[in-house]
């Protein structure tokens, strides 16, 4: 995956979420971790994370899978436009 789509790319897309959507993103991430057996990220750390810090956490814990997780969450919170835009830019 191109280097743009690491911390900076994730952070840019997370900044596209409004405050309510960002909180929902964190809640859905919490569910994804519990349901899919992803590597655990402490909830307290996720809960208080800024967009930049959360992007760093996702890349640190999930590396290449960070975008897969992010795409699923964007779809879950009705922001398919963001996952589609990112997919187009990565193509």
Report on the structure:
- The mean pLDDT is 89.
- The protein has 91 residues and is an all-alpha fold.
- The radius of gyration is 12 Å and the shape is globular.
- The chain has one domain: Death Domain, Fas.
- The chain has six helices and no strands.
- Residues 1-91 form the Pyrin domain.
- It comes from Cricetulus griseus (Chinese hamster).
- It holds the Pfam family PYRIN.
- This is NACHT, LRR and PYD domain-containing protein 4C-like protein.
Oligomer: single chain
CATH top level is Mainly Alpha
Query: What is the H/E string?
Result: HHHHHH
Main pleated sheet: none
Number of strands: 0
Please work out how many helical segments DSSP would assign. Answer: 6
Q: What is the fold named in CATH at topology level?
A: Death Domain, Fas
Keywords:
mainly alpha, DEATH-like_dom_sf, DAPIN, Death Domain, Fas, NLRP_innate_immun_reg, 91 residues
């Amino acid at each position: 995956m191109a280097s743009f789509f690491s911390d900076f790319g994730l952070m840019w897309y997370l900044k596209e979420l409004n405050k309510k959507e960002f909180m929902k993103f964190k809640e859905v991430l919490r569910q994804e971790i519990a349901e899919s057996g992803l590597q655990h990220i402490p909830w307290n750390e996720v809960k208080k994370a800024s967009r930049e810090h959360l992007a760093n956490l996702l890349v640190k814990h999930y590396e290449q899978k960070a975008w897969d997780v992010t795409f699923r969450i964007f779809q879950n919170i009705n922001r398919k436009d963001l996952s589609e835009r990112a997919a187009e830019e990565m193509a």
